[in-house]
Amino acid sequence: MSDQETGKKQVESIELDPFLEAYEVATGTHLSVVEGGENPDFICLHRDGIPIGLELTKITRRRDIVYSERILGRKEHMSSDQALTEIFSRIEWKEQARKTRYTARVALSMLVLQLVDGSLDDLRYVLQGLQNQFGDHGFAEIWLADYSGQDAYNDIELLGLHPQSRWGYYQRVWPDRKPYG
To answer: Does 100 fall in a domain?
Structure first.
């Protein structure tokens, strides 16, 4: 594994912990990591012993777009429309990877879309009424994880996209507390 790949894996491991904590609070289900690697990023066990692959992927604008929008338009975050387009694109792209590579290692997979270039504040309202749009794939679960407030609050918020039984917004454990700093 190259130094760049090793660095990427270390970052993903650091980013996994806040998701696992938020997931347990939201669902009451503890996931323990049994293996890190690639295709998918991690393999976890539900407390009932069933293995599930966990794939992390960031939802963000391309660097050239970020640069020009910040300078020319003073736009600090991606719009809800941009985020929604990127969400659907990533699900489709990761579904191809799941079918061709993940299923050889683990039967069930979960996709975590990391929102780092915006927040759930606006996006969750745009997603209302789209519950039926996220079931045309083979992922057991899809979560939108808002990492934009992680530095300030040391945790993340979740929005369950799939299955419909998980659909909805799961806010921070203590949403009214002051941010760090």
So the answer is: yes
Tens digits of residue pLDDT in 62-74: 566 654 555 555 5
- How far apart (Å, rounded) are the C-alpha atoms in residues 30 and 50? 12
Residue in this structure with the two tokens 């749009």, named with its chain if needed: 133
Q: Which of 147, 136, 126, 44 is nearest to 91 (CA)?
A: 136
Rounded to whole angstroms, how far apart are CA atoms 145 and 35?
21
Question: What order do you get walking across the sheet with 42-46 strand by strand?
Answer: 31-36, 42-46, 51-59, 109-115, 141-146, 157-162, 168-170
Q: In the predicted model, what is the mean pLDDT of the chain?
A: 81
Q: How far apart are alpha carbons 10 and 15 in whole angstroms?
A: 9
Question: What single letter denotes the amino acid at residue 167?
Answer: W
Give the domain extent around 115.
Answer: 3-170
Inform me whether the pLDDT recorded for 54 exceeds 60: yes
Alpha carbon 40 to its chain centroid, in Å, reads 13
Q: Which two tokens stand for residue 145?
A: 């994880």
23 is a domain residue: yes
Domain total for the chain? Answer: 1
Q: Is 175 contained in some domain?
A: no
Phi-psi region of 154 (alpha: psi -120 to 50; beta: other; left: phi over 0): left
